[in-house]
């Protein structure tokens, strides 16, 4: 017998918690880059001007709180895990074809909403990132260029609509919301998961195919796709041990130690350079991020103590709004946070750090509220709509099983005796 439903849901809550924390990490990382770019660059010579705790945040294991690139790696690992787990738990079900049929619509509707929101804010003239970047560059005598990369074009409803339904997924264009660069990777990675599981998920010796497909992806430079495949492998092992009724149970001390090791790897990763293996070049930072994410997800899958920790209510709440928070926070930084910062700097005469801290807290509170509203009004309805369309138009029709025909033979004739 497998694990109980309650236990299984608790374990999935833990992964939702990790996803929520990862989304918050991207948000905090972008705030740091916007107002304190030095802290986002370990080893920067100007770090000596910051308090010790700030340097520790930038260079120690706590860097996971602001390392947005690492958070994206976690997104892809978790997607591979979650998208394939239903199949491995019930290979005879329709989770695979259902997920594939619903995936585009489920991603597109919330992403398109954020694009249209950005277009509206731009047309109203409410984006202040260019002015904030120029002000910080002059007053701090240090270039603040990151904010200048966004919303520096003339918006049109036609271009926003095209980007919403096509460009972001198939051309990688995401001018209206640069966070959406992950959508093309997410869509491609999702269908890699579906294809791999459909082709090899029932084979006994499928470990060979994990190695072969993974090697092809690595050698062709598709490193993000490798993270999806690693997530599938963890889900595979997870479901096998569930069915065997003897699941791996990592002790709490080992689990938390593994999580700390994962964070330590990220906090001390090389920022630049490549590893060379058999003539192929692999980015050092991405290798460390992938190894760290693999350690964290694997440990959480098999450590009840980590599952308990990551399934606490605040983390699960963040998990629910993780997608919408990821979608709206850059718009909020470039509009609300930059506006508040300029007002406090120019009108109230506050220092840079004071203005940036107040602007960041205002942005976090507003973005979290907006993400919850979009979750209720857009994200959840998009899931329901995609599911309803699948059941109405695409779900395979179950053929009624025919009743076995009973053949009735006439009774044998009995010869009459004289």
Task: Explain what the structure shows.
The protein is mostly helical. It is 69% helix and 2% strand. It has 15 helices and 2 strands. Strands 1-2 form a two-stranded antiparallel sheet. Helix 3 packs parallel to helix 7. The longest helix has 43 residues, at 352-394. The termini are far apart.
Strand tally, please?
2
Global outline: globular
Q: What is the radius of gyration computed over CA atoms, rounded to a whole number of angstroms?
A: 26 Å
Classify the helix fraction into a percent range. Answer: 55-70%
Question: What class, by secondary structure content?
Answer: mainly alpha
Number of helices: 15
Largest beta sheet: what is the strand line-up? 1-2
Question: Biggest sheet, open or closed, and with what strands and sense?
Answer: 2 strands, antiparallel
Low-confidence stretches: 1-10
Written as H for each helix and E for each strand, in order along the chain, the element string is HHHHHHHHHHEEHHHHH
**What distance separates the N and C termini?**
67 Å
Average pLDDT metric = 88
* Portion in strands: under 5%
